[in-house]
Design a protein that fits this description.
six-stranded parallel beta sheet, alpha/beta, elongated
């Protein structure tokens, strides 16, 4: 049995079978373990939910295949591999797999393969109490909106908090003076993002205890410092001028007057760092004819010495001014942080961006065994996939747990292990904290663990692509290595991008350029048109060769480009799948519901009314032309008139009623009234109903709240794409990571890297002058002039950006299995030079290096374009889920208000029935009241329609009973259930007293159950009480109401 290394690192380029390697190592651990539940002690972390699903299904799939009698050929190969590596026989693997599968199915929750965020979430839940978090907190992924809410709340406080108000007003003024937009919320938002992005964590800690007032102090101080420094430069400028003058040097002796002009610009305070500067003696050009050359040359060292002081001062001035531009939003950092915390607390949510920081602050320094105890699991083996996307903080948080596992042994004497798999060339998430450098350092000689046993393995074969694609990428990215100055990055592409080919030979790469056009404004829109047309042409070419639509993916760098392609292809009738085409907010029916909701919120919203009338005109009536219908509906401002008018078209709707309903009910009614059954069943409408329900339950949102939410977040929702459809896929390169496609088309391959928005930079500052150790500066070429530190940082940043851009390109070009089409544009200057900083130059330089570039040729082919892979005609496998149409209608709900309708025993029924009759009789004064009493009983829900006849019969039997004729005769005063208060403050309440005009009384009481003499005594007591009041009781009767009526007179 081979010994595993404690810490193994797999450097896995694209398509090199890293999931296979992970699954194999995972299976080795669980198959060789003496116990059947070794999976409980393994934590596998990967980057996306899709990858989690793939890994889980591969492991479970392999195990169940091993356990079956006829494993597939693939599984047989894997079993052979495992057998060699583990010294287990095939039979042993089979029986062990059967035992594990049985165990795993019963404890599936302990089968821990999860995304890093899910694992962090688990840790936070376990420590919620210690972190002062409510146990019920919800996780929100929508940090952007939280931030917008926080910034809005801060701006809304203007006018209350004086210091804040002044700050915001000054900031607005500054921006207006700079001729920028006066809207400050965007800048505050950008700065707020720093709080959320863990890349700035260390820098922000320096600001946490600073108040706005302290920032204002720093701002004032720096403004004064800049003024003083500017004065100094003028003094020095004058010194240079004086030196020239004292030596009697003629200003005209300097060639073209360049040097004297430079000096006077300093004297006048108009120095421009972009103009020529003078550092060496040779920089100062002297006219050949100058008489005083020797004099000038003698003082040149002095001149240069003074100038170098001037330049240093200007470096400082420009540095401070660059910081002053950012100081106002920075001074609001804490205000933003506090506001964010407040919102999260109020809404009982925790933003996912806080996860890593929380653990880092609170949990990371706890001893590992304590953390395990809380988690309820002790992990011995760790797998981390896509390591290049793991952020520094996430890695730091995992180190203590892993170190603990690697240092110890389990009860069988096996030590813990860690396997990380990654590819720094596919690190494209720097903006989220994912850093390629982390993997590069580990694969060199860095080891954060106490256990020194570490091994690096290269996965060298590419199993994904055909040989032509692999060879193209090998030679292309080797050439790309020359773009880098940074030794690590250079080495990455020089020595780690070459892959060995597999048995699939052939394949095809096509690089084409759009015809050259002059650069003008309208031109850019035409260019997009040219790209989308070229894309369609390429799709048609590919389909002609026998590929299906579903084999093709179009990758774009930006979402907007994807949308442009999608719109054009849809017009041209090409079937598509993209998150844009599947966006909920683009669905007509959803738009209709949103407009209707807007109208409910504000009935004078003409725009919303017109939109929903437009929908109704098209789909719900055919009497009037669309425009007439809309115009007529808009005229009717009175809502009741509007409703009556809609009734003519069988559109029965009370807006007032809808407004009274809960949000979900209102939307459900709209859907059932206005959408035909096919549309109701559409995934868009169903998913929209889910969103509405969730908002209604979670936030008790009303219409207005929901519409606010929809404005902010509507575009984020798209229905997941069904796998089985035969359609071209369009996605961004970031989304495509980890996927593969037979044919990849990449239009718009001409990204101008210099135009990309740049991150701001944190530069070191002198604490005594600035009052802060670090300051925030906009990243631009001006930074090169802020001193050596700044220059160094600027170069590092530039290299990082270049790496990220080339990595994105690497991810895009390695998705292709069989054919790759790159559509670019040459962007040559008027002189025919290649553009700098543009992706298209990479392709042109490659073609030049291959010796095939020709200025007149726009299309280049490598390999043979014929289709090689076997064709299977597409079968549409997408299934439709039947929709449930039942909608709750309040009219169909019956409420049982009487226990009688729920009890089953006879005796109980009889008693209940008696009580019921008794209650109805309290409405009856004379026999003429019987029908009215029954109607009242029905209205009050005392009886149901089904019981009406029986009850009517019983009551008539009592009222018309011969012995009770006097009791229900007309012309008397009837008192039902009147309370009589006696002397000793005792009360009695006879069921029925009838008082005749001559003050005689007929007394009656209703009872249920069997006749009982104690009731007669009770009635006699009533008689005394009534006679005490001066009446004469002439008849007493007890009525027992059960299945039949019994009357007892005495």
């Amino acid at each position: 049995m081979m010994q595993r290394h404690s810490f193994s690192i797999y450097d896995a380029s694209a398509g090199s079978g890293k999931t296979y390697a992970l699954v194999k190592e995972y299976l080795k651990i669980i198959l060789t373990s003496p116990k059947n539940d070794a999976y409980r002690n393994i934590l596998a972390i990967t980057f996306t939910n899709k990858a989690v699903h793939e890994m889980k299904s591969r492991i479970v799939g392999s195990l169940s295949d091993f356990a079956s009698d006829t494993p597939s050929p693939k599984s047989q190969d894997l079993m052979q591999d495992l057998s060699v590596d583990t010294s287990l026989s095939i039979i042993q693997i089979k029986t062990k797999a059967q035992q594990i599968i049985k165990h795993l199915i019963h404890n599936y929750a302990a089968f821990d393969i999860s995304t890093i965020d899910k694992f962090t979430h688990k840790v936070i839940r376990a420590f919620a109490h210690d972190l002062n978090l409510p146990m019920t907190f919800e996780v929100t992924l929508d940090t952007e909106n939280l931030l917008i809410e926080a910034v809005d709340a801060i701006i809304a406080q203007a006018g209350e908090d004086e210091i804040l108000t002044n700050l915001l007003v000054d900031f607005t003024m500054e921006k207006t003076d700079d001729d920028k937009s006066w809207d400050i919320s965007r800048e505050i938002l950008e700065t707020g993002k720093l709080v959320l992005n863990e890349n700035n964590r260390n820098e922000i800690t320096h600001f946490q205890d600073k108040s706005i007032t302290e920032f204002l102090e720093i701002k004032k101080k720096l403004a004064v410092v800049c003024e003083d420094l500017e004065k100094e430069t003028i003094v020095l400028g004058n010194e240079v001028a004086a030196l020239i003058e004292q030596n009697g040097i003629d200003v005209k002796s300097f060639s073209r007057g360049t040097f004297p002009n430079h000096i006077s610009s300093i004297q006048e305070g108009k120095f421009n760092p972009k103009n020529k500067m003078f550092h060496e003696a040779d920089d100062i050009a002297i006219n050949k004819t100058a008489q005083d050359r020797a004099l000038i040359e003698a003082i040149i060292p002095d001149l240069l010495a003074i100038l170098s002081k001037v330049y240093l001062l200007f470096e400082k001035i420009h540095f401070y001014k660059a910081f002053l531009k950012n100081i106002t939003p920075l001074s609001l950092l804490n205000t933003v942080s506090n506001e964010l915390a407040k919102i999260q607390q109020e809404q009982n949510i925790l933003s996912i961006t806080e996860f890593n920081a929380l653990i880092h602050r609170e949990i990371q320094n706890q001893p590992a065994p304590f953390i395990y105890e809380r988690l309820g699991e002790r992990y011995r083996h760790f797998f981390i996939d896509e390591f290049q996307d793991t952020s520094e903080m996430q890695w730091q948080n995992l180190i203590p747990l892993i170190d603990n596992a690697l240092s110890g042994q389990d009860e069988y004497g096996d030590k813990g292990t860690l396997m990380i798999v990654g590819d720094p060339k596919q690190s494209i998430y720097r903006w989220r904290g994912g850093k390629a450098e982390q993997f590069i350092e580990l694969s060199k000689d860095q080891n954060p663990f106490n256990n020194p046993d570490k091994k690096l393995t290269q996965l060298e074969y590419n199993y994904r692509s055909y040989s032509q694609i692999i060879e193209f990428n090998n030679s292309f990215f080797k050439l790309m290595a020359n773009e880098f100055q940074h030794p690590d990055y250079k080495d990455l592409y020089e020595n780690h991008s070459r892959q060995k080919v597999n048995s699939k030979t052939g394949g095809y790469v096509n690089i084409s350029f759009l015809p050259d056009t002059a650069e003008t404004e309208e031109e850019t829109t035409d260019k997009t048109q040219m790209y989308v047309e070229a894309t369609l042409e390429t799709i048609n070419k590919v389909v002609e060769k026998g590929f299906e639509y579903k084999d093709i993916v179009i990758l774009t760098r930006k979402r907007g480009q994807g949308i442009a392609v999608a719109n054009y292809l849809t017009e041209q009738g090409v079937p598509l799948l993209s998150s844009e085409t599947l966006m909920i907010q683009n669905a007509t029916e959803v738009r209709f519901i949103i407009h209707l909701l807007k109208y409910l919120k504000n009935s004078s919203d003409i725009d919303a009314k017109a939109h929903f009338l437009h929908y109704l005109a098209l789909h719900a009536q055919d009497e009037l032309p669309v425009h007439d219908f809309i115009a007529k509906g808009k005229e009717l401002v009175q809502e009741t008139e509007f409703e009556n008018w809609l009734l003519q078209f069988n559109l029965d709707l009370s807006f007032q009623n809808l407004r009274k309903k809960s949000l979900y009910e209102a939307v459900e009614i709209m859907v059932s009234r206005f959408l035909n059954p096919e549309l109701r069943a559409s995934s868009y409408v169903q998913y929209f109903l889910d969103i509405v329900l969730e908002r209604d339950i979670r936030n008790q949102a009303g219409v207005a709240d929901f519409l606010d939410f929809w404005d902010k977040s509507g575009e984020k929702f798209s229905i997941p794409s069904p796998e089985g459809t035969n359609a071209v896929r369009i996605m961004t390169i970031h989304k495509s990571k980890g996927l593969e496609f037979p044919v990849v088309i990449m239009p718009f391959a001409e990204e101008d890297y210099s135009r990309k928005p740049k991150d701001k930079l944190w530069l070191n500052a002198e604490e005594e002058t600035v009052g802060l150790p670090k300051v925030l500066i906009d990243n631009s070429s001006a930074v090169e002039g802020f001193g050596e530190d700044a220059l160094e940082l600027y170069i590092i940043k530039k290299q990082e950006e270049l790496l990220d851009n080339i990595n994105v390109l690497y991810v895009a070009l390695t998705r292709a299995e069989e054919q790759l089409y790159i559509i670019s544009s040459r962007n040559l200057s008027n002189k025919g030079e290649l553009p700098k900083n543009n992706m298209c130059a990479f392709f042109i330089n490659y073609l030049i290096a291959q010796g095939v570039y020709d200025a007149d040729k726009l299309e280049y082919e490598l390999g043979n374009a014929a289709k090689l892979s076997s064709t299977e005609k597409h079968k549409d496998e997408s299934k439709t889920i039947p929709v449930v149409n039942a909608i709750l209608d309040a009219k169909n709900i019956k409420i049982a208000q009487r226990e009688s309708l729920m009890w089953g025993t006879h005796q109980q029924e009889a008693i209940e029935y008696g009580n019921l009759i008794h209650e109805i009789l309290s409405f009856v004064k004379t026999k003429n009241d019987v029908d009215l009493a029954i109607t009242k009983a029905l209205e009050n829900g005392l009886i149901t329609i089904a019981q009406k006849q029986l009850v009517h019969q019983t009551i008539v039997e009592i009222v018309e009973h011969t012995a009770l004729k006097n009791h229900f005769a007309e012309g008397n005063r009837v008192m039902n259930e009147q309370t009589i208060i006696q002397k000793e403050a005792r009360t009695i309440k006879p069921d029925r007293m009838v008082i005749t005009p001559d003050n005689t009384v007929f007394l009656l009481d209703y009872k249920t159950g069997a006749p009982n003499p104690k009731y007669e005594l009770q009635l006699t007591n009533y008689q005394y009480a009534i006679e005490d009041m001066g009446y004469k009781v002439v008849e007493k009767a007890l009525i027992y109401i059960g299945k039949e009526v019994v009357v007892v007179q005495f």
